[in-house]
Amino acid sequence: MRRCRPPDPTLEWLEFASGPSTLRADTTVSPDALRSALLGSGELALLDVREARWFCDAHLNLARLAPLSTLELQIGEFVPRRTTDIVVYDEDDAAHGPAARAAALLRRLGYARVRRLAGGLNAWRAEGLPLIDGYATLVKAFGDLARQHYGTPTLSLAEFEQRRRAGRPTTLIDARPREEFEFLSIEGARNYPGTELALRALPAHEPDHLWVVNCFSRTRGIIGTTTLRLLACGGRTVFLEDGVMAWGLHGGAVVQNANPVDDIPPESPEVLRALADRLIARHGLSVVDSEGLERFRRDEDRSLYVFDLRPESAKTPGTGARSVPGGQLLMHFENYVGTRNARIALVDEPHGLRAAVTAFWLAQLNQFEVHVLRGDLPASGETAPRHVPDDNDPGLLPEVLADRIARGEVDVIDVGPSIDYEKGHLPHAHFLLPASLDPLEPLLRQGRAVVFVSPDGAASRLATRDARLRWPGATFDWLRGGKAAWVAEGHALQTSYGPAQLLTPFDDDWGSVMRVFGPRRDEVWADYLEWERGLSRRVIADPTVNFRFFDITVDART
What we know:
Elements: H1 9-17, E1 28-29, H2 31-38, E2 45-48, H3 52-57, E3 64-65, H4 71-78, E4 86-89, H5 98-108, E5 114-117, H6 120-126, H7 137-150, E6 154-155, H8 157-166, E7 170-174, H9 178-183, E8 185-186, E9 190-191, E10 210-214, H10 219-231, E11 236-240, H11 243-249, E12 254-255, H12 269-283, E13 286-288, H13 290-298, E14 304-308, E15 322-323, H14 328-331, H15 333-336, E16 343-347, H16 353-365, E17 369-373, H17 398-406, E18 410-414, H18 418-423, E19 430-431, H19 441-444, E20 449-453, H20 458-470, E21 476-478, H21 482-488, H22 521-533, H23 535-539
Parallel strand pairs: 1-5, 2-3, 2-4, 4-5, 6-11, 7-9, 7-10, 10-11, 13-17, 14-15, 14-16, 16-17, 18-19, 18-20, 20-21
Antiparallel strand pairs: 8-12
């Protein structure tokens, strides 16, 4: 039986949004009121503050993953406006659970309009409201629906193999970032990540030539193929069905540490500008100049995210823009933009094609107000802060910590991501997700000093601060510069570890299939592909998800 609903959930939400003066330390919002807000057009940051493993088991479709263990470091860039309406939730909204602690943390950091979802995920589920499992589900569902809407042609593995055996002219392009391509790729593939392929002078070749675009499974390959067809670049372009995963499952040759050939020359800036202008004009994409961007920055009632999509060599420091490689913002938008219905400005001078293509796709997600910047990116004295302790604690230098480890004087606690710990950690280091420091108790009874480490030192500095507050009689420190400094000074990392070193499980592991090796791989990959193929049907059953695709006919030349 469904729970009794409040008399008017819309009024309840309006009371929440009316201003900081209405908020108390224990304020909550009901499932129905939250659903009403998600159906509206106002700005809202809906944050799931559980760890990634539990988020992937089940979460609200429009929630952003913001786990308590990394929330303080993440939130300044993720939700930059301190008066944003924020709702946090966990499993059951317990008095001392992640949501209650996250709400208290956010208020301490100056966020004035924070509520918890009353009853947490359990209450949402009890109302029969939609949930989804998995990671990056919105963009994956969106990609499959884009394939259907734009009629993106698909090449089966059998057809691809047949073309290769017959010697028919075929160029395979992997659209993933370089590090993912190097991890595992199809033999003979070139690598042009995201929008970068659209910036190349793709020759039309002979009539039978085929450009085949792939990724690890589906989404990037679909988006890359559809983009080239919409821009009418090169000749015929198709998506290789289910990418590297399907190729590997069928026994195709895959390569690790591939070094791709880069033999497609760049297109001229003039041609790229013309392509960008045509895309913007055809779909009515919004363009803003430097003066307009300054007006956005001064608007205290709207959130603004500025992303520079250019290569590092073209970026200008001091602009306040966040650097995101071209084409990756769409795939990872849930990791970069915490506020729904916020403004986004995209930078890609001098030609603007990366920005135009990215705006084209982001606009169809129907979650943001998206603008392409034309002209210079104005300087900004403001940057989204990373919340670190404001003190003069310098931390330990690598050589000092190395000496103390050799003497057996310290316990080293790695508070970075588990995937980073797996790739390499300091000798004998323990792993800890810093959302809770309770597991440190047994170590502290042994009387040694504790030194926290993390990739760049930011997370370990916060852990040191919190541990000192909790145990003022114990000795805590942190590694200055993190593991990056440790390696730079010539010290070694270890990859092996035992169960006793894991003070907490790897609950930040969202279950990437790229972390599955050995005999389980094929079963996991096959299950994943089946899950992804059925994802879009499940996601769009939720009325709060409202993608809006452009009405367009693909250029006949493609």
